[in-house]
Design brief:
The chain is an alpha/beta fold and 337 residues long. It is built from 11 helices and 9 strands.
Length: 337
Amino acid sequence: MNRADSGVAAGWGLDRPELSVVVCAYTLERWTVLTGAIRSLLSQSRRVDEVILVIDHAPALLEAARAEFTDARVTIIENSGPRGLSGARNSGVAAASRSIVAFLDDDATASPDWASRLMGWYADASVLGVGGSSIPNWSGSRRPAWFPEEFDWVVGCTYRGMPVRPSAVRNLIGSNMSFRRALFGEVGGFDPSVGRVGTAPVGCEETVFCILVAARFPGGRIMYDPAVRVDHHLPPNRSTWRYFRERCYAEGRSKAVVSGLVGSRQGLASERSYVRRTLPVAAMHGIVEGVRTRRVAPLARTAAIVSGLAITGMGYVVGRVTMRLGGRLPVGQEPAT
């Protein structure tokens, strides 16, 4: 590692690092899945040392959480920053006291060995962050026949095209990720200009953070391990064409902001490979399967792939033009669905 790397790495040689997990919540409407998320953390095979539940400007939820979560390991705080996921996560990091800080979405449940598998990676001092798979749980319903697995990022989940074995990656999935706490002191927190606010289908704050971390510590690695698994519970509205369309458009606009912050070479590196390799193969497979089986579903998935790519591209172009014209890109103010 270079000089910058070794200065922080000297404090990472811990025989048994401890784990803080940050869960951010903003509405009582997700109460059932929130309680499931917290319980999954408290019942891990490897003890979670600290759970920090951050309530994002929701007084009724704050009151309910304080009454429900009485385990000594659970600390409940309010988001002290701007409303939105980035501000809530930053508040959680500020309250965290352990050497590793993980993030679990309030609508996800961690597998029983999640903490054990995740923490095992931190025995290697070159590992800066660790994340894992986020498996879609369609809330009792089935995956829509037209919904391509290559677009599961639309619902915040692992998508086809991601590594199938442990690999170093550019960025992690926000619903299931962790970092060494020291990194936040080095590069700052999550940028609220690209974070989700309420139900607005935007994001990419974790992408910016991971890129900044990698630039600061080029000798380090951000690891993705599919076995570090969570189940991501999806409400019915996320299986609609409207949500798919709005999320693709918002992703394009978010990528425009990311490119403006870190440059298009880094901001779009993974996306270029995805567009050039993963999507053409998937689209062609859908056409071939549809013709061979005379079924509509494979052709519908191909149509969704083509449409999703076009809509995302349109969002990106609109975002870049807006930024070049000097306008403010309000990615956190997209209409809720």
